[in-house]
Amino acid sequence: MSGLNVDTLIDDPGTRVIVCCGSGGVGKTTTAASIGVRAAERGRKTVVLTIDPARRLAQALGLEELGNTPKQVSVDGFAPTGELSAMMLDMRRTFDDMVLAHAGEKRAEEVLSNPFYKTISSSFSGTQEYMAMEKLGQLAAEGTWDLIIVDTPPSRSALDFLDAPQRLSTALDGRMIKLLTGPVKAGGWGIRKVVSAGFGLFAKAVSTIVGGQLLADASAFVQAFDGMFGGFRERARKTYELLRSTGTAFVVVAAPEPDALREASYFVERLEAESMPLSGLVVNRTHPVLAKLPAAKALTAADNLDAAGEAPLAAAVLRLHADRVAQAQRERRLVNRFTKAHPGVPLVHVPAMAADVHDVDGLRRIGERLTGA
Fold first, then answer.
1. pTM of the model
2. Helices (H), the chain
3. Are 88 and 55 in contact (CB under 8 A)?
4. CATH class of 6-172+237-289+331-369
5. Residue 175 CB neighbour total at 10 angstroms
6. Which H or E run includes 48?
7. Which residue in 279, 257, 275, 264 sits closest to 334, CA to CA?
8. CB neighbours (10 Å) of residue 290?
9. pLDDT at 32
């Protein structure tokens, strides 16, 4: 089995989208940025979309901040033959833009001013993941970029964004909300004026739980939003198909730790089940052994030096080396377990950096390691 080499993805003009996914804290954002830097330096017109609220990407690229529109990267020592821009998803702004683009002026005003909309656009389950899909679809539709790199949301399951469009659409177009708004559409009465005794009792019970005003706001929101549902689902379908196309490459990122590799196995299985194009696994922050001295011999030599009262610094270095060998062996066993379960998945090891990555040079070094060099 050949290893993963990101240059193969970058240099293929057919590759239009690279999606970096994995559990939280494994270096997805840094990996996405590193691929972006390398792609730009190899001639691609690239944009990196991050959903990471920590703003590490902006700092590493020499930008004060990232917004909801792409901002070109221009720092000393970075003169790519291509181009690199970066942006960070603003969930509420993306939702607002979607409403403005696909509703009439009057209806958009009604939606944007509705208290229920203000709640779901910032805190409804699945909204962030859906808006990440929406923004990806927008960037692809613009046709400005020949490579889009996506740093997926920092949720427990980084593939939640595959389910988000259907979840959010189902919730907004579900039976409960239709039932709440049905009487209003039927006769324009309003929830409290429904003559049906059965529905009246139901509405009264729900009003007691969530509040009558919230029901009224929800009712008004869905009426204003009605008619956008079809476009809502259609855009989600198109973006989903984009993710399944041959021009998309999924790169799973994991640390050499049990939980991270367990999640990586889940991602691989889910991508295979969804017929998503998986390119490989990045095993990030590994600790390769720098010398061939076995751990046992290093510890024996350290013990001999201690017993002789000689070279305490050398003895300490030998013990550190033994610890490093043990760590490398532990990481190798974990990765081998993953490989045994998924023998067809190419992978590349990226050694841990001596310091945190905080600039383009650091991203460039990681990019070089992503080639397997």
1. 0.82
2. 6-11, 28-41, 56-60, 91-102, 105-112, 115-123, 127-142, 160-172, 175-187, 197-210, 212-225, 229-244, 258-273, 295-308, 312-341, 360-369
3. yes
4. alpha beta
5. 9
6. strand 45-50
7. 257
8. 11
9. 93
